[in-house]
User: Fold these one by one.
Assistant:
Number 1:
Amino acid sequence: MSGQKTILITGASQGIGAGPVKAFLDKGWNVVGTSRRISNTTPFDRTARLELVDGDVGDPATAERVAHRAVDRFGSIDALVNDAGIEGFIYFTKQAIRQMLLQNSGGSVVTITSSLTDHPPRHRRREASG
């Protein structure tokens, strides 16, 4: 484990999510990138500071596995970019957005928040423990 900061980036294999992976690696951070098939589709060179985890973070078990891999490999999660998504915004109709809101499908946010209570960032550990 190192004293470097670690960031977890969801939706990291392409598009907007891939940008922060490169930027944080260039700044010397450890990066944990996740998407459904990131290990097969990654545009990134493998380095000691990059951990790639396949899976859908909409599934609570995957989100927990990603958080555990980050902490096991790098010791903490200091920052998060949550870029995982289902489709591009332009593909959603008003009815589809209304249906998503009615289903209360914000599980990914709850899962990430829940994972952070188990693995609080270093500067928040004292608050979280008592």
Number 2:
Amino acid sequence: MFTQEAIKLGYTVHVYSPEKNSPACKAGAIEWTGSYIDFPSLRRFLDTVSGLSFEFENIPEECLDFINDYSKSRDLNFLKPNANSIKIAQDRILEKQFFNSIGLNTVLYLPIVTGEEDFSQFPMPAILKTTRFGYDGKGQWKFNTSEELKVFLHENPPSNTLKYILEAYYPYDYEISVIYARNQEGKEFIFPPALNFHRNSILDMTEFPAPIPENIHNLAISSASLLGKNLDYAGVFGLEFFVSGDELVVNEFAPRPHNSGHYTQNGSDISQFELQLRILTGMDLPERNTIKPCLMKNLLGDDYSNSLQLCLELMSKDSRYHLHLYQKDEAKPGRKMGHINFVGKKSEVDKRFFNLT
């Protein structure tokens, strides 16, 4: 989707990936294939581009360090966001510690990195998560007692390559997220919060703007701004929150355009992908933005054929539906294949929209 925005505005996009025929290449990007730690190949790629960002944050630290050193050697500042922001987002322990260090509220947590930690007094139930590579419910387990957790850790002990974080179960009322953008000069562009709904731990639908109290809205915006400034961020991120009553708890952030921000493609004058492009290329960020009510529904690989057929039917009858497909080769259960946006009020949408999977 970033590639589509960039080409539309006249830019050439190069994509470096370990996998051939990536979705971005199908959208018109020039493909470079190689390992993230194949530094000669990576250098040839870097010699070709004038701005660099990431599609996802799980990049090896050696790769980030190489790019950082390369950037300094050429007196460039073309990696956006900076490597430190990506490293923090990669590790749930570092992420929680950073949130707390700048005054953002999180759930109670305990790093489990040696297997010798005393969690006997930790409140249960609790969620154990791997510190890295977990998403869409992967790499996490719920435990009702400390004895259950003890057995699991005995069978799956932490190691140099596997560490955990134990998080207190938080019975929140709802989840919201904020899409935040900031350029190198510190100018911000922040969308109002959106309301998220999940199915089987995967984002199912986003409602924008979120129908939430003003104090929660303002606190979410100020929290995103606080994070962006303290990271000296340049780029786009998505920041997720849990809300319980008047309490706002930061969950995690993604240092890139986020699934919960896909409503920006049709519910806003400017999308999160164009904002990312503007920041990478040095274009100014807009002073104003008109937003429209929008619902975003993810399309997974579980029943993709039938979902796609229904989307096409909805679009043929109402121009307020907009389909966005990711050009992935194979539909698999739980795999995000695309999404459909409806521009309008929730009460105006065809009821079948809510059954799309």
Number 3:
Amino acid sequence: MAQGRMQFFSNSMKRITEFSFIIPNDVNAFEKLTNPHFTRPAKTLILLHGYSGIDTDWIWGGGNANLLSRKYNLNIIMPTAGNNFYLDRKSCNSKYGSFIYEELFDYVHKVFGLSTAREDNFIGGLSMGAYGSMRIGLMHPELFSGVCALSAPYLFDKFDKMKPGDTRGDMDYEYFCEVFGDLTKVKGSDADIFAVLENASKNKDALPSIYLACGTEDDLSRDNHALRDALTAAGVEHKFEEGKGFHDWTFWNDYIQRGLDYLLEN
């Protein structure tokens, strides 16, 4: 399999950025005969890292991207986007969402000659990357036929109560203001996954297949229950799973496979 890391100039961020990739282009004949996923051309998964992560996390940081590529015949593209929740800011050099669904998508498909057909493209991620993949997938169903979101934070309902000096884990008020802008205006905005879902569900037939999962010992379990309930209330087809597990690679490496099993069957 071809594996590497590439750099290119991003107009969305006005700087050189990088992404890692795995292309299953040299799987042996025996594997092709015994693996039904190789009876079709490879599909593509854009796989997003979490808070404090980088593009290599899914390869060297604990993830199992090599296994996923070989098992499911997937081209896997893993970008770096910093601790920015894959959101666009007002400044011209901070378009972290547009970078994923416009610039990176176009770039990798042209460079590697990948299929741009909706049915051949998925997006997924863990934690912050799961939030990013869910948001981008709901906002751009014309690009992606499936979303796999693991252990995502979705509940920003108390942002409007935060004040200077407040913290959430190792993130503080100033950081949230930098990423989300005016915290009193996050609810109902396009950073609010529940508002994004409400808008996207107006055309349910166009939505991608949705898979979400979270460990029962994960502090973000409540967030995922809330989105599960919102999807159900909106009549949006999805699959939600939870099982014993924390916010760690043991859970993610297992449930990313369960998620891909679901997306490739639906």
